[in-house]
Design brief:
Alpha-Beta Plaits, single chain, 39% strand, two-stranded antiparallel ribbon
Length: 103
Protein backbone atom coordinates (compact mmCIF):
# COMPACT_ATOMS: atom_id res chain seq x y z
CA UNK A 1 0.00 0.00 0.00
CA UNK A 2 1.32 3.42 -0.97
CA UNK A 3 1.18 6.24 1.58
CA UNK A 4 1.32 9.98 0.93
CA UNK A 5 2.43 12.21 3.80
CA UNK A 6 2.19 16.01 3.97
CA UNK A 7 3.92 17.94 6.75
CA UNK A 8 3.11 21.62 7.24
CA UNK A 9 4.69 24.34 9.34
CA UNK A 10 3.25 27.77 10.05
CA UNK A 11 0.51 27.64 7.39
CA UNK A 12 -2.89 29.39 7.42
CA UNK A 13 -5.99 27.59 8.70
CA UNK A 14 -7.29 27.51 5.13
CA UNK A 15 -4.51 25.08 4.11
CA UNK A 16 -4.89 22.98 7.26
CA UNK A 17 -8.66 22.73 6.70
CA UNK A 18 -8.21 21.74 3.07
CA UNK A 19 -5.71 19.02 3.95
CA UNK A 20 -7.92 17.75 6.78
CA UNK A 21 -10.81 17.44 4.32
CA UNK A 22 -8.82 15.24 1.95
CA UNK A 23 -6.37 13.42 4.23
CA UNK A 24 -6.19 12.17 7.82
CA UNK A 25 -4.49 14.55 10.28
CA UNK A 26 -2.45 12.18 12.48
CA UNK A 27 -0.68 14.94 14.41
CA UNK A 28 -0.51 18.73 14.38
CA UNK A 29 0.33 19.67 10.79
CA UNK A 30 0.95 16.05 9.68
CA UNK A 31 -1.47 14.55 7.14
CA UNK A 32 -1.55 11.07 5.60
CA UNK A 33 -3.45 9.52 2.74
CA UNK A 34 -3.30 5.86 1.79
CA UNK A 35 -3.57 4.93 -1.87
CA UNK A 36 -4.07 8.43 -3.25
CA UNK A 37 -4.03 8.32 -7.03
CA UNK A 38 -1.45 10.35 -8.92
CA UNK A 39 -4.21 12.66 -10.16
CA UNK A 40 -5.53 13.33 -6.64
CA UNK A 41 -2.01 13.88 -5.27
CA UNK A 42 -1.27 16.34 -8.10
CA UNK A 43 -4.54 18.23 -7.48
CA UNK A 44 -3.76 18.50 -3.77
CA UNK A 45 -0.26 19.79 -4.55
CA UNK A 46 -1.69 22.28 -7.07
CA UNK A 47 -3.99 23.74 -4.41
CA UNK A 48 -1.13 23.91 -1.92
CA UNK A 49 1.06 25.75 -4.45
CA UNK A 50 -1.73 28.21 -5.24
CA UNK A 51 -2.51 28.96 -1.60
CA UNK A 52 1.04 28.87 -0.27
CA UNK A 53 1.66 32.05 1.75
CA UNK A 54 5.45 32.07 1.54
CA UNK A 55 7.11 34.00 4.37
CA UNK A 56 8.04 31.64 7.20
CA UNK A 57 5.88 28.68 6.10
CA UNK A 58 6.78 25.29 4.69
CA UNK A 59 5.03 22.28 3.21
CA UNK A 60 6.62 18.93 2.41
CA UNK A 61 4.89 16.11 0.51
CA UNK A 62 6.40 12.61 0.40
CA UNK A 63 5.12 9.48 -1.36
CA UNK A 64 6.37 6.11 -2.53
CA UNK A 65 7.97 6.19 -5.98
CA UNK A 66 9.94 3.08 -6.90
CA UNK A 67 11.38 4.78 -10.00
CA UNK A 68 13.62 7.14 -8.00
CA UNK A 69 16.61 6.46 -5.73
CA UNK A 70 15.49 5.72 -2.20
CA UNK A 71 11.98 4.79 -3.37
CA UNK A 72 10.42 8.12 -2.35
CA UNK A 73 9.61 11.33 -4.13
CA UNK A 74 9.57 14.63 -2.27
CA UNK A 75 8.08 18.04 -3.08
CA UNK A 76 8.86 21.07 -0.94
CA UNK A 77 7.41 24.57 -0.65
CA UNK A 78 9.00 27.18 1.56
CA UNK A 79 11.82 27.32 4.06
CA UNK A 80 14.30 26.10 5.04
CA UNK A 81 15.80 25.82 1.58
CA UNK A 82 17.19 22.34 1.11
CA UNK A 83 18.80 20.43 -1.70
CA UNK A 84 17.78 16.83 -2.22
CA UNK A 85 20.80 14.82 -3.35
CA UNK A 86 21.26 11.16 -4.18
CA UNK A 87 24.16 9.40 -2.52
CA UNK A 88 24.72 5.67 -2.95
CA UNK A 89 21.08 5.00 -3.85
CA UNK A 90 19.44 7.03 -1.09
CA UNK A 91 18.10 10.55 -1.14
CA UNK A 92 19.48 12.94 1.47
CA UNK A 93 18.44 16.46 2.43
CA UNK A 94 21.30 18.94 2.43
CA UNK A 95 21.29 22.56 3.50
CA UNK A 96 23.89 25.24 4.04
CA UNK A 97 25.38 25.53 7.51
CA UNK A 98 24.41 28.83 9.09
CA UNK A 99 27.09 31.25 10.25
CA UNK A 100 26.02 30.59 13.82
CA UNK A 101 26.85 26.89 13.50
CA UNK A 102 30.19 27.56 11.82
CA UNK A 103 31.52 29.42 14.87
Amino acid sequence: MSMTVVVTRNVPDRIRGFLASSMLEVGPGVYTGSDLSVAVRNRIWGVLEGWFPGADSSIVMVWEDRKVPGGQSVKVLGVPPIDLVELDGIVLARREISEKLKQ
